[in-house]
TrEMBL record:
Residues the record lists as binding ATP: K51
Keyword Phosphoprotein: no
Record's keyword annotation contains Membrane: yes
Gene source species: Paenibacillus lutrae
Keywords: ATP-binding, Kinase, Membrane, Nucleotide-binding, Transferase, Transmembrane, Transmembrane helix
Pfam families, sorted: Pkinase
Gene3D superfamilies registered for this protein in UniProt: Transferase(Phosphotransferase) domain 1
Residues in Protein kinase domain copies: 24-306
A GO term for molecular function: ATP binding
Superkingdom of the organism of origin: Bacteria
SMART domains given in the database record: S_TKc
UniProt protein name: Protein kinase
């Protein structure tokens, strides 16, 4: 649910924090959703991302979760920079400020740089999920719109509106990435929920035959996990990942850390197959090895020793 007031803040609007006294100037809107909008703002010579919440309870929950994450020894430790209220047109706006991350969407990055980057991107995204899960939270609304991909396949998550404490009901989701939509499990905040969404994200990104589009257009009573499994088996690029993707879709990973290790080991197996004298590895597979091997090894080393 949103409030009836969803402010339109034009370029040059100045917002002054009531409690912390910091002033921000709006440059443009970066995006919006059911629970708020995200603005590109400037303070002094630096740019930031500001999220203005529509629903006070949802907004406060997200702030509380980010404050908790900020106290952890993870990559999210410096994510929450400021939280405050401001007045605009006689209304109170609750906001928080995050680093502004420049990059592109997952699909745009893959189109520009090739499908070979999917292993590096997937590894970096799984590492983020492991950090969240080990901190007691499930991301909940994992989808391409909530990701920014940067150079060398680095990934940042940019919206935490769906973040849910483990064991509770998922508070926000997007249907096609939700396992309940595919009759594949309950909407409970656990590692396997995010891993299902991760698998769907990979399938949707690499599906070039519009099989995924056909599946989501089917009648709800006919929609099931076997549709996704068939897409994986029919697509040459996805078939190489089938051992991982099928386990993630079926909820067969106990933890996201286990999934991360399996993702890396799968990459190493494909590398070994591609280097075999009689290898007939696909061109995209060979590209993926060159693009992502260093990132995979680094990530595996990090989590084996944590």
């Amino acid at each position: 649910m949103t409030t009836s007031y969803e402010p339109s803040l034009p370029f040059g609007t100045t917002l002054s924090g009531r409690w912390n006294g910091r002033t921000y100037t709006v440059e443009r809107r970066l995006g919006s959703g059911s629970n708020g909008q995200v603005l590109l703002v400037r303070r002094g010579g630096r740019r930031y991302a500001m999220k203005i919440g529509y629903d006070p309870l949802d907004h406060q929950f997200e702030v509380n979760a980010l404050q908790s994450l900020s106290k952890t020894d993870t990559s999210f430790g410096q994510f929450l920079l400021d939280t405050d209220d401001a007045e605009y047109e006689g209304k109170r706006l609750s906001f928080f400020v995050m680093p502004y991350i420049e990059g592109s969407s997952l699909s745009k990055y893959i189109r520009a740089n090739g499908a070979g980057w999917i292993y590096a991107i997937g590894s970096n995204l799984l590492k983020k999920l492991v950090e969240l899960h080990q901190s007691g939270y499930i991301y909940g609304d994992l989808k391409s719109d909530n990701l920014v991909v940067m150079e060398h396949g680095r990934v940042e998550i940019i919206d935490f509106g769906g973040m849910t404490a483990k064991g509770r009901a998922i508070k926000q989701f997007t249907e096609i990435f939700d396992r309940g939509y595919w009759c594949a499990g309950e909407r409970i905040a656990e590692d396997s929920y995010d891993l299902f969404s991760f698998a769907v994200l990979i399938i949707k990104t690499l599906d070039k035959n519009d099989s995924f589009r056909s599946a989501i257009q089917s009648l709800p009573q006919n929609r099931c996990i076997s549709m996704l499994e068939e897409i994986v088996q029919r697509n040459d690029r996805l078939k190489e990942m089938a051992p991982f993707l099928l386990r993630a879709l079926r909820g067969q990973f106990a933890t996201s850390k286990e999934a991360l290790i399996a993702w890396g080991e799968q990459g190493k197996r494909i590398r070994a197959a591609a280097q075999a004298p009689d290898s007939h590895a696909s061109p995209w597979m060979l590209l993926s090895l060159a693009a992502s091997l260093i990132a995979l090894l680094g990530t595996l080393g990090y989590f084996y020793w944590r």
